[in-house]
Write a structure and sequence with these properties.
12 helices, disordered N terminus, about 325 residues, 3 domains, alpha+beta, elongated
Length: about 325
């Protein structure tokens, strides 16, 4: 028999039926009320289709004995539908009444979840220099790590405090925090200043470390080889193979050394290249730059510079805009 009443549906998550899943409960508070026709309940109870249909609402929530007791006290006419695994509350105003009950129940569940998480922490606490328990929540302070930030953002109700420079995790999220704590603590250890310094010293003694230092020293010289037959325009942002978008400020005329060209600028052909000085462009210059309509060709690639494309200008403009924003030096995170 086709249903004629409006139905509102929400997806729930399969969890342990012996405990209250607060995240699911919050979803239920927003949308987990289903307006259902009596035909489904009549079919589950072996009723005939010729009997009058009854208005009502079908709803469900994770099982907890105390919640069920409060639900039955609020809705004494509610009946359990074993086929749908849901409760049916009869009445034309059942949807509004169930909505109000969920709205009243959600704060109580947060309090219950905080107390339950506080008890779990006292019974099996996380002992770490990165975690500080206080009366209201758990505070986490670690060296900056992208892994730490991603893990904490995945924890329900976790919030970053910009003033205190700590993460606040409520006690009701303790189980999820404990599940992710190993990855958080390992990432924090890796990003301790002493650990990072030790890794840097180890890399210094490798071929890759020495090559990186040589590239950094070359970059600090702010020079770039150009061909006298194809000099770049001065004061205009152009793209380069080695340093992205730059602004050439001067053509020094000094011959480029063959050794430097072979090591740092393999795109050159080592035939009479001269050094040109460069700097990074500012946001106004990048915004005023007109993008090329086509990608650079092989001749422009060999030349070493070309008019930037829109795909090159967009990330450069975003980076320049972030540098201009106040307070952009600090990074958000733990």
């Amino acid at each position: 028999m086709p249903a004629t009443n409006l139905e509102r549906t929400t997806t729930t998550t399969e969890r342990d039926p012996r405990c209250v899943d607060l995240a699911v409960f919050e979803l239920l508070h927003r949308a987990r009320v289903i307006l259902a026709k009596r035909d489904a309940d009549m079919a589950s109870n072996n009723r005939t289709d010729d009997k009058p249909q009854q208005a009502g609402v079908t709803t469900s929530f994770p099982y907890d004995r105390r919640i069920v007791e409060r639900f039955m006290k609020a809705f004494p006419r509610a009946r359990w539908n074993d086929e749908r695994k849901a409760w049916f509350v009869p009445g034309k105003t059942a949807a509004q009444r169930v909505d109000r009950w969920f709205a009243q129940e959600a704060p109580d569940q947060e309090t219950y979840g905080d107390q339950k998480g506080r008890d779990a922490f006292e019974f099996d606490p996380i002992r770490s220099p990165y975690l500080e328990p206080v009366d209201t929540d758990l505070r986490i302070r670690t060296p900056y790590s992208r892994t730490v930030v991603e893990e904490l953002r995945a924890i329900p109700w976790a919030q970053w405090d910009e003033d205190l420079r700590v993460w606040h995790v409520p006690y009701r999220s303790y189980e999820e925090l404990r599940r992710r704590w190993h990855a958080i603590e390992q990432a924090a250890h890796r990003n301790e200043p002493a650990a990072r310094k030790r890794r840097q010293q180890e890399r210094r003694n490798t071929d890759a470390g020495r090559a990186a230092r040589m590239r950094s020293a070359e970059r600090r010289r702010r020079r770039y080889p150009v061909s006298p037959e194809g000099l770049p325009p001065l004061g205009v942002p152009v793209s380069t193979d080695a340093y992205g978008i730059v602004v050439f400020t001067d053509i020094t005329g000094e011959l480029a050394e063959s050794e430097a060209l072979s090591v740092f600028y393999p795109h050159t052909d080592d035939r009479g290249m001269v050094w040109a000085s460069w700097r990074h462009p500012n946001l106004d210059e990048l915004v005023a730059t007109w993008p090329a309509r086509t990608d650079p060709g092989s001749a422009e690639r060999r030349r070493g510079w070309w008019q930037p494309t829109i795909g090159e200008l967009r990330p450069a403009r975003r980076a320049a805009r972030r540098k201009r924003m106040p307070g952009s030096v600090g990074r958000r995170g733990a």
